[in-house]
Amino acid sequence: MQHGPAVRRRKLGAELRALRTGAGFTSGEAARLVGWHQSKVSRIETGASGVKPADVRLLLDAYAVRDSQLRELLLVLAGSDESTGRHHWWHAYRGVLPPTYRDFISLESQASAMRTLETSVVPGLLQTPEYARAVTRAAVDGLDDERLDALVEVRLARQDVLRSQPPLELSAVLDEAVLRREVGGPEMMTRQLERLVEAARLPQVRLQVLPFAAGAHIGVTGPFVIFSFSSTSDLDVVVLDHLTSSLYLERKEDLQAYTEAFNALQFHALSPEDSLDYIAAIGGGA
């Protein structure tokens, strides 16, 4: 279990090591190609030290890596500030967002798929502006209006990943408590449930409800997110949110455990079709 930046360094280093060996170079040969000492290559590959985006480019060029998606993903893991398309927009909010949240958004922007269990609130990618404001105000104490506005802007800007090409594939399991918790009053909650129904009809969104009738389940310990990447499964990561930070799990056994847990939750949840009807029925009675 690691904090985001450490996980990113280790994952970046592991991928660079795999690319080097795939290109047929020893660490010493790679170092000579880019004019470094061998120890620098070793520190980067083990995640012992950070690496600048410019150094990552040198290595990728030396290894003849031409896959633009993979190159961009690795540059994001290195902390690249260069903006292309929908990526890196969050740097404009550096003064507002804590580092762990920026890490989360950068992973979200590059992921091909996201699986999430939510037990308390609607996932950020599916929130209405009013709901996002009410949840943010309740979750972060002492916010002035300017900072609250900025955090809501970030929440809504994140939703662009569902409209990009290709869009992020979102699979979400929502505990019924998410639908029943009246955030902002009945009218606001009705609009939020309508938004969920609209989202559930999108081809890139799979939404399932875990009703109270399902009883205790493996997700009662709390929400989690699994990010997957089309370029390489070695970069997949589990994110656990806490009150003041996020924790990132990268070990294969952790990924397997949470993947199996999510599959079990989907099995016990209502089907996407029945979930849509269930949400609509709750919204009609809200």
UniProtKB/TrEMBL annotation:
PROSITE patterns: HTH_CROC1. It comes from the Bacteria. Pfam families: DUF5753, HTH_31. Residues 16-70 form the HTH cro/C1-type domain. This is Helix-turn-helix domain-containing protein. It comes from Streptomyces cellulosae.
